[in-house]
Amino acid sequence: MAESPVVLLSGHAPHAQLGRGAFQEMRQAEVAAPLTKAAWTSADADAVAADLARALRLAASGRPGPVHLSLPTDALEKTAREALPDAAQLAPEFTVLAERDAQSAMERLHRARRPMILAGPAAATAPGRARLSALEAASGIPAIAMESPRGIADPSLGAFAEMLAQADCILLLGKRLDFTLKFGASPAISADCTLLQVDDEPEEIERTRRAVGARLAAAFVASAFASIDALTQAARSTPSLGEGWRGEVRSALAFRPGSWDALAARPSGRIHPAHVCRALQEILDSDPRSVFVSDGGEFGQWAQACLAAPHRVINGVAGAIGAGIPFALAAALAHPGAPVVAAMGDGTFGFHPAEIDTAVRYRAPFIALVGNDARWNAEYQIQLRDYGRDRLVGCELLPTRYDQVCIGFGGHGELVTDASQVLPAARRARSSGLPACLNVMIEGLPAPDIRRVPAGK
Fold first, then answer.
1. Is 0.90 topped by the overall pTM?
2. Could you tell me where the beta strands, DSSP code E, fall in 65-128?
3. What is the pLDDT of residues 276-335, one digit of tens each?
4. Final residue in a domain of this structure, among 235, 254, 273
5. Considering the domain boundaries, does residue 453 fall inside one?
6. In terms of C-beta density within 10 A (0-12 exposed, 13-18 middle, 19 or more buried), how is residue 28 classed?
7. What is the DSSP secondary structure assignment for residue 122, as one 8-state letter?
8. CA distances from 104 to 99, 210, 248, 255, 363 (A)
């Protein structure tokens, strides 16, 4: 759901033993199929190279996504006779939006008073954001990538929901009309708003049509990410809308409540999440290659609202938690020497803490910023809202010393209970050259609900 082009390789029982009760004999490809773009099992040694080339090509083609390939041991242990694939066989396949269709889409958008372009997760990468920025500059139309399970309430998008509700024409550029957009229904999106769509998958276009009917004014089957440049070129031959509407949207996206600036440290020894996260921006600003990773529920949302970096990795539309430390380790290996800050809740830390051992062995430093409120706070907030305070069940954790866990694996760790000590601790963690855990005791607050106009007004 994060639209990441990942190839997953798994070992498999040998073909010669299938049906006889081989060790770990199971239908792996069939299990993986519903969650991937494709899944299959290599037939023999000569098929492995071609299968791998096909998997790499499929993962990156069209809407990116995972591909699973099972490799039987007897295929891996034999000598292959077939030649390795050449570069052409690895190249992804795209259908670029035709010039006339790109022109038609841009003309429709420019006839609107408050148009907007919404791109899917594949455009939320650093290269994707750069290309969207070029499209926005050429057209004068706000172009926004969405990749959060919080959708229109994504705190990193500020007061975006207010502007989305005012849009009168929206181009869905590889962006699914799903729960993150309230399925296109009012009041999230105006009932009078016209929709356009560019998508790799005809099924997605049909799903949009079922949701909004005649409001889908035009749709084009084309690779959304690969079509950004075609739309940008078309925009250059169409009069720009100017800065009015675009400026309003950008102002809303940048909005954060002024009250956050005046937050005082609480005497309880627990720090407001905004205080914690904002303190780390200096670390991320220190290098143009810096990486910000955000994992987990409520604390992760505060981090996304407060922190920005040239490279950003979040837990994706599926909202799965637990991968923050492995993501940080991978980022440290991909960008040696660059600051890597991974924000996560205390529950999230518990999924893969042993990967700190891996990071120590591979000399891959990062800062794991753990917001410790001693509970599964996302679940706590849901139960509190839906069932009331007297029916809060199974949400509590211990105020565990995760910093000492990190030290035990050979990393750097510090417990932080004072807002003024967050940045000094982060600087020490950075200078240690080790994987580090800042175990920060925070208030267990719900994720930020960013509005310029208070609810009910």
1. yes
2. 67-72, 115-119
3. 999 999 999 999 999 999 997 899 999 999 999 999 999 999 999 999 999 999 999 999
4. 254
5. no
6. buried
7. G
8. 9, 23, 25, 33, 52
